[in-house]
Structure formats: structure tokens, C-alpha cells
Amino acid sequence: MSETPMPLWEVFIRARTGLAHRHVGSVHAADAEMALQAARDTYTRRGEGLSIWVVPAAAITASDPADKDMLFEPTASKPYRHPTFYTVPEEVGHM
Amino acid sequence: MYTQALNQADPETVATEEPGRLARFQERIDAEERIEPNDWMPAAYRRTLIRQISQHAHSEIVGMLPEGNWITRAPSLRRKAALLAKVQDEGGHGLYLYAAAETLGVTREELVDQLLSGAAKYSSIFNYPTLTWADIGAIGWLVDGAAIMNQIPLCRTSYGPYARAMIRICKEESFHQRQGYEIMLTLCRGTPEQKAMAQDALNRWWWPALMMFGPPDSESQHTAQSMRWKIKRFTNDELRQKFVDATVPQGLYLGLTFPDPDLRFDPETGHWRFGAIDWEEFRRVLAGYGPCNRERLEARRRAHAEGAWVREAALANAAKRRQRAAYAAHRIAAE
């Protein structure tokens, strides 16, 4: 048996208005419309969302975990990006 | 992220799996870090997970069959709606799990082939028949109860996509067990015939439910390494004991008896001690000689074969629409 592989789609759901769409999983489907229907059946059986995005998995470019240090480690040496780096006298109150 | 391109097993990496990398991997596991699809992992970790997650997925899919048998004969609309929703959930659980397995570099088509060819295993429990309506109650109460016991620790398993799938599944599974127990309770409060039907279902499902946790720790091939890698958090025997301790009082509340003359409460340990499990039966069913093995696989093969034209047509239609869109874009560009 060698079937044509069914394309893979990543599924993102907005749980409530005011929240961003969040990745929940993936489905296989021939086209975008069927991917939306499959995502609806698979991931929203209990009122999990108000909106669905489906994205072809092949369209996602991901960073390589091996580059983790190169990409993200430099932020560790920049505490001055955080508000707690700066001293404000107590008398000044909340800032 | 569930992108597949970065997940292909790299034979060179496997061949040069040096101790330093293995040690760093174990350190991450010991520090309770989750392993994600594109992270380096030992080839055996990947193989173990593919085997375990796909078996789990196959079990959900085959598990739809014994209960699907009763949807059209449910005794009321309430029961029918609940059973339909439950069976649909099992299908959904299978799909979450297939997707999690696919992040390890195996394709859906390969996984389905492994099930249909008989190369992959699924839970032995689904090779028993559902003879009466009470079996639907017993399955929800006992089979889903055992599954929950097994699955709750899996929410903390070391492989991220598997753990996330399990969290979703566990949230949905609780309704399954409760609806099953409610069916048993209704039968036990009904006529003597109905209560006898519930007793008969318990008699037939009790031992197979205990076998669901797998062979005893002394014989389990995979337990030690899976525990080290935190794929598993409890051994088969530990989970089985937890299940017995939780379930026996529920059965006694129903006014039913368990088909085990050796079952007794041990006040010293607080555990229910149970009799010897017939592991010969377990091996027989797993090897393909249970009451329904052939029927289950035939049903899956038939469904797959009869759906082939739908999959082909959907792909052909998508290709045609892409082609038309490209042609239209080309014409607009030319004009």
C-alpha cells in the first residue's frame, strides 16, 4: 500500500475574544477547507474556541534547537532591559 | 511545533550516538525538562515512543468498534447521545496521539499500515465482544477507569507532544468513566434481570481490565528503561494495584461481586489483594487469538479500503483547484 500522503496542517484556536490564537495540534486534510472542518471536529468538541486558523505545516519555518544558545542566550546578560534593574527611592512610590 | 521536516531520523546521528550526548540527554530528563520534537534524542527513546504512542493511538481507534456496536441499540436518546459523543471522543483521542507520534518522524500512512497489516499491537481489551447493553456500562466504568489510571501519569511523561495530548485526553476521559458507572448503577437499581446483566458484564470484563496494565513487572521488557527516561512514571503492577484499590469499593457500592474468590482487603497495607491473573489468556489475545481479533482488524481494513476513493477524490479536487488558481493568476499576469 502506498498512498499519496495527506497534507499536514497546524491548528490554532482562539479560545475567547481578547485572546490570541494558540497552537493546539495538527490534522491531515486535502485542502484548507477540509482542514478547517477536521480541526473543528477534532479540537472543538467542548466549546474550546471561537475561531480556528489552519496553516500548512510545510509553510512554517522553525528555529533550530541547536541554535538555542546563539539566539536566546545573549538576553541573559541584559538585565537592564527589565524594570527591576533600576533603583527608584521608596518615597517616590509605585512606578 | 509539529512540523515534520526537522524530525527525520538521521542514521549518522544514530550511528555516532556518543556517551556525552546520552549523558546530557539523561540530565535533561532528570531535571524534569520536556523533550520536544526537534531536540536531539537517543534512537531507542524515539523508537520506544513511536511504539508506545502509536499503540495507544491504535487502541483508541479500535476501541471505537466494541462500543460502536451498541449506538443504534442504546436504550434511550440520552444514552445514545452520550455513547455517540464518547465514541467520537475515542476517535479524537486516536487523532491527537497519531499527531504526537508523527512529530517523531513517522508518517500517518505508515502508522495506519502497521495497524492494518497486524504489525502493530493495540490494547488486548478491545478483542472482547460487547454482548449486552451492560457491557457498555462495564467498559466505561472499568476499561476507561483503567485507562485513566494509566494515562494520568502520562500527562507528565518526558516527551512534550505526548504529554500535551494526554492532558487533553484525560480531561475528556472522566466523562467516559462516569457515564459507564451511571449505566451500571441504573441497571443495579433496576429489575433482578437488569442487575444480573450488570453482574454478568462485570464477571466478563474484570480480568481483561486488570490485564490492560500489561504483564507483571517481573516480565515486562520495557519498564526499566522507560522509567529511566520518564516515559513511564509507575510500573504496570503499581498502576494495577491503584486501579483495584479504587474500583473494588465502587463495585461493592453497586451491590455486585467480583469474579475473584481471592479478593480481600488487607487492613495492614490498606490494599485490596487480588488473585492470580491468567497471563496465558493475555498472551493468547495479544498474539491474535482473542474472541474478536480478526473481526476488529477486518472492520478497520474494510473502513480504510472503502474510504480510499474519498481520500483520492479529495486530493484530486485540491490539486485541480490549485491548478485552476495558478492558471487564473497566470492569465491575469499575462493581461
Q: Could you explain how this protein is built, in words?
A:
The complex is a heterodimer of chains A (95) and B (335). Chain A has helices at 32-43, 68-72, and strands at residues 8-14, 22-28, 51-56. Chain A is of the alpha+beta class and 95 residues long. A 3-stranded antiparallel β-sheet of chain A has the order 2-1-3. With 335 residues, chain B is mostly helical. In chain B, strands 1-2 form a two-stranded antiparallel ribbon. The longest helix of chain B is centred in the middle third of the chain and has 29 residues, at 160-188. Chain B has helices at residues 11-15, 19-30, 43-62, 64-68, 77-102, 108-116, 134-151, 160-188, 192-211, 223-228, 236-253, 279-289, 293-306, 308-334, and strands spanning 264-266, 271-273. The A-B interface holds A 1-6, 8, 10, 23, 25-31, 34, 41-43, 45-46, 57-58, 60, 62, 64-65 and B 1-6, 36, 38-40, 85, 88-89, 92, 95-96, 99, 102, 107-109, 113, 116, 165, 172, 308, 311-312, 314-315, 317-318, 321. Chain A: It holds the Pfam family PaaB. Chain A: This is 1,2-phenylacetyl-CoA epoxidase subunit B.
Entry summary:
The complex is a heterodimer of chains A (95) and B (335). With 95 residues, chain A is an alpha+beta fold.
Strand content of chain B: under 5%
Order of helices and strands of chain B: HHHHHHHHHHHEEHHH
Please give the order of strands in the largest beta sheet of chain B: 1-2
User: What is the molecular shape of chain B?
Assistant: globular
Q: How would you characterize the largest beta sheet of chain B?
A: 2 strands, antiparallel
Total strand count of chain B, please? 2
Count of DSSP-assigned helices of chain A: 2
Global outline of chain A: elongated
Helix content of chain B: 55-70%
Number of helices of chain B: 14
| Class derived from helix and strand content of chain A | alpha+beta
Helix content of chain A: 10-25%
Question: Per DSSP, what share of the residues of chain A sits in E-state strands of 2 or more residues?
Answer: 15-25%
Radius of gyration of chain B: 23 Å
Mean pLDDT across residues of chain B = 92
Total number of beta strands of chain A = 3
What's the rounded overall pLDDT mean of chain A? 92
Unreliable residue runs of chain A: none
